[in-house]
Amino acid sequence: MNNYLSDQGVVLGIETSCDETAVGIVRGKNLLANVISSSVEEHARFGGVVPEVASRAHLEAMPVVIEQALAQAGLALKDVDAIAVTAGPGLIGALLVGVSAASGLALALGKPLYGVNHLAAHIAVDIFAKDSEIEPEIALLISGGHSSILQISDITSNIQVLGATMDDAAGEAFDKIARILELGFPGGPAIDLAARTGDPKAIEFPRGLTKSQDLIEHPFDFSFSGLKTAVSRYLSVTPNFIRSDVAACFQEAVVDVLLIKALAACRETGIQTLVIAGGVAANSRLRLLAQDRCAVAGVLLRVPPADLCTDNGAMVAALGSLALSRGIPASEIGISARSSLPMAGMGTIIW
Amino acid sequence: VGKFEVVSSKNILLVIDTSSTRTSVAIIQDRKPIISLHHDDSLAHGEVLPRLVAKALEVENRIDQVIIGMGPGPFTGLRVGISFAQIFALGRNLPWLGLCSLDAIVDPSAISATKKYLVATDARRKEIYWAKYENGRRIFEPHVSAPQTIQSLGLPAFGEGAIKYGFSQNMEFLFPNPILMANLISTAKTYSLPLYLRRPDAYPAPHNVKFRAMTAQDLESVFAMELLVYENESPWSLGQFEEELNGKNRWYLIAEQEGKIIGYVGALFIDQNTDITTLTVHPEFRKKGIGRELLRRLIDWARTQRSKSVMLEMRIGNLEAEPLYLAFGFVEISRRSDYYGPGLNALVMRKDLV
Predict the structure, then answer these.
(1) Per mean pLDDT, which range of A192-206, B142-156, B192-206 is the poorest?
(2) Does the interface predicted TM-score (ipTM) exceed 0.85?
């Protein structure tokens, strides 16, 4: 394979694992286009993502989003060297729209297809900001569906799950608390905004799995269900609660635990780079506190720009581009979308 | 989004259908298959379709147009075919054409003695997708209903859905056939969106429409809509509406969106039976489930009156209303001539409440 070509190959990435229909285009490590069509407004009516609503929206948006991405990149489909698509984890019906579109595109163009892992893609998006290789690093991956601490030895083939949530994902906890506080959906940005005028020290909410015994048994795992219960109980016994204070203190408790555990993983493994990725990484309090604590711990912090933290196609194209440049064989024709990860593992990274 | 154009039969067509348990792929030129492949697995359309297409393209890689079965069919499998085919067409810069999958199940020339028939596929959840055909042409839009609909219509039925519920023994016409589909491209109705026929489960249907009892203040607006809808079919007078609204054992409900009346339904309960006096939806707000919701609420009301049946008259040839009533289990019991004016005959239908 021509090395120059594979390092500079154009990869079109398709993402449909949840409610965003997204297409990104990457040349080598350069981002050329990132177009997102979201059905979030439709889901807001239900206070959560409705899989069938999302799948219908993906199908309608897909051709438009692909064409917009090509226009943004100033390219035609004949310029594309490979297609990448999120093949899991995610909502199965939603994933299948993207995987089928990507398969159709790859066969039409006669170009290779890479099915990629959504979580690894969230971390791979960091290639745009970096001259050096991604690895090794510790990743704190936090979104509506996932909260895990990962050790990245090779982003395309070797990712170890050090810890994960034992109940709700961090983003899920944000959504649920936002619903109780009547702040709307999605909960992450709503709480972030409400918390700005609140006092993060006003109420002492519990930090899950941080007692000394927990730190031995579950050093890198999370639990947010106790926090959720504590917030609901507080609201039911406090008729005149201050909404912004509750939002700020809830957010502080989540962010505190995330950073305690992520930095413990850096210490434990001796890896001095921490990347924070996934939708919750867009949280402003988390970004600020992470800077302070990483500076104190002497850890290099990497956080992709907020618009590359939430689900997008550029991250899928980024991981596809890494696979292409590292000579990973393309996926077989007829890849299966997979909705869930195996127990305590990452599952397949490149299909 | 799609580019529609009818091309000559010499063109090479890639036909894709994933609306049933079968995934079908064919490359067809001049009504003859160059290659035709299928695989039966209701849960593997996603994996199967790209493999079948790759295999077919090895035989003939030049494609001029893509033909897509738009359903109705189980949503997830259906979308696999549509998503794949639309983006394949985009990738090759080809026009695509969407057809109703039910139209390509029965070969009318093979059953030319059968003038009227039904085609039904399995919609799961104890329902069927179905359509009615006369002389090989579909009569109204496909519907999703209880399987007993086939029985109540008393016509020969074909397809997977008819077999499953014991209303057919014909095993020849079970699945959408890509060769028949290719034959339909210049004659059949085309579709640019999937034929879902069902709303997503969680959908608060219909969207931002309010239902409330009709009051005297609504009569002017209701009457205006009556004139609009029933211009040549004996519309009610304002006085008739007033009488109805003030009469005993009557029930009138309106559907309203942002203050505008977009539908109404009325009923009269008498002698253990509920008569539907009117069911009207504004022409611009049809096919959104408003009539269905009005009818559903009316039947609920009839039950609260301990009504043993619900009856209605429908103008024969009202193709929009008929499938709705059939779907709710109404069956024809008699006909009345010139009921809505000269030549406008009525069908009397009844649904028993048990």
Answers:
(1) B192-206
(2) yes
